[in-house]
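User: Predict the full complex structure for these chains.
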Amino acid sequence: MAGKTDAPKGRKPRRAKPPRLKRQPGKPLYAQVEEIIRKRLIDNYWKPGDMLPSEFDLAAELSVSQGTVRKALNEMVAENLLERRQGLGTFVSEYTERRALFLYFNLRHRDGDQAMPMSRTLACESRKASESERARLQLDPGARVIALHRVRELRGQPVIVERLTLPQNLFPGLGAVTKLPENLYRFYQGEFGITVAKAAEEVRAVAAEPLEAQLLGIMPEAPLLEIDRVAVTIDGRPVEWRVSRCNTTDYAYVAERG
Amino acid sequence: MAGKTDAPKGRKPRRAKPPRLKRQPGKPLYAQVEEIIRKRLIDNYWKPGDMLPSEFDLAAELSVSQGTVRKALNEMVAENLLERRQGLGTFVSEYTERRALFLYFNLRHRDGDQAMPMSRTLACESRKASESERARLQLDPGARVIALHRVRELRGQPVIVERLTLPQNLFPGLGAVTKLPENLYRFYQGEFGITVAKAAEEVRAVAAEPLEAQLLGIMPEAPLLEIDRVAVTIDGRPVEWRVSRCNTTDYAYVAERG
DNA sequence: TAGTGGTCTAGACCACCTT
DNA sequence: AGGTGGTCTAGACCACTAG
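Assistant: Here is the predicted structure of the four-chain assembly.
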C-alpha cells in the first residue's frame, strides 16, 4: 500500500502518449483522468471507432486505481463521447445512423416514427462571413465561410429548408464536393477530422418567405418552425451554424424535460 | 461502528418502513435499492424537502454496502429526483423557483435572460374530458377534468396563451381556487401531493387564432410557437396536459442536444 | 467535534464476448 | 480459455456543515 500509493517517483516510463497525468492537489483524481482522456480525443490520438485500453491498463499507465478510471469513463459515456460494450471494451463514439437520428434530428411524424431525410442541395458558395455568421461561429473579421442551401424531404415531401454555414478554414476544399451525404456529422468527422460533440438550439415560429413557401409547397406567410443550431466540438469550438425552417403540419419537434 | 457495519443478521428491526428489500437474483443490487427508494418516494414515505437517512444507515437497513446505496442514489440524483448537499445529507428534490425555471420553462429572451412569467387566468371550468384529453391523460370514458385558460406575461407584455387540463380526481376542489400561484408544480405538490418528475414536449409552429391574436396583441394568422407538454409523475402517470402558444418575436425556446 | 457526503483504493466475483 | 466491462464489498481518508 505505502509503496504503491506514493507513485513511482523515480521511474517514469517515457512513452509517446501525448498527455500525461500530473497530480494536481485540490482537484479530484478522476477529473484529472477525464481531462487527459478528453485531451487525447481532441488531439485525435484516439479517433471515433477506436477501442481504448482496458480500465486496468489505463489505471496502470496513470498510476491510479481501476475504480478511478471507471468513474472518469462513465462520465464521458454519459456525455455520449464514449461507448462501452460489455465483454469487448470501451470505444470512442461514432456517428452511426441511429446516433445521428436520435441525438441530432428531432422531428417526428404525427404517427411517431422518424426517418433520415433526403436532401437536395440548392446552392453551395464560398464567401466572406457576414456579421452574424462571425458572431455565431466566433470568426475573425474577414474570415471566409462555406454557405449551403438545401431542401430536405421526408416521405417524399419537402419539409425543411436549411441554411448551413461552415468556417472555410476548417473544411478545406469542401465547396468542390458535388454530392453531400445525408449524415453530415459523420462526413465532417471522416473527411475533415472534425467531431461534433454537442449543439445548442433555439427554436422559434416564423412566417414563410416567398422562396421558402415555393420550395415547400405552402402559402407564403404560413407558419414555419425555425431551428437555429450551433454545433460545437468537444473542446467547445463552434464548427457549424444551421438554420432549419420546418413545415410542422405533419411533424413535431420533440424534447424531454426533467 | 463495528456493531453497525456488520448488520444485524439475526435481529431484524421490525420498523414500519413500507417497502423492504428482497434480493432477486439476476437483477443488480443497486437497481433493487433504487427501486425501493423510488417506491418510498411514490408512497410519499419521503416527501420533497425531507432528508434521507445517511448512506451508511440505508446500507445497514438494506444489508448492502454503502457503495451500492451510493450508486443507487447517484442515479436518482441524475434524474433530478434527489439532491445531495455535502456535509448535510441527501434530500428529496423540491420545486424551487430556480428548478422550475431551469427544468420546465424554456423560453429565453433575445438578450439571454429568463424570468418567471406573471399569469392571468381567463377561465377555469370543470367538465367531461374530450377525446384527445382522455388520450393524453390516459383517462377512462366519462372522466372529468379541470380546464384552465390563461395568459402569461413577460416584462409586462403578454407572450403566452396557455390551456391546461388536469384530471379532476387527482385535484379535488381545485376549481374553487381563486388565485393560482405562478409555480404550479410546487402547488400540485404542496396541495395535492402530486410530484411532477418529468415531461415530454412536442413543439410546432401554428397560426394565431383570432382570440389568441387579440390576447397577445398581434395579427391573426401570425406565427406562434406551440409547446404541447404532458407532465408525468415519478411512476409515469400523466397528471397535466398543457398547450402553450408563444409569441417568439422576442423569445426563443432553447434546448441542448448531444 | 461529530456526522454527512466525496474520493480513492484494492480485491473478489460475475456476465459477456471473442478466439 | 482469456480478456473485457459490470457489480459488490470493505475500509481509509478528505471536505464540508452544523451546533
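Residues 61 and 73 of chain A are 15 Å apart (CA to CA).
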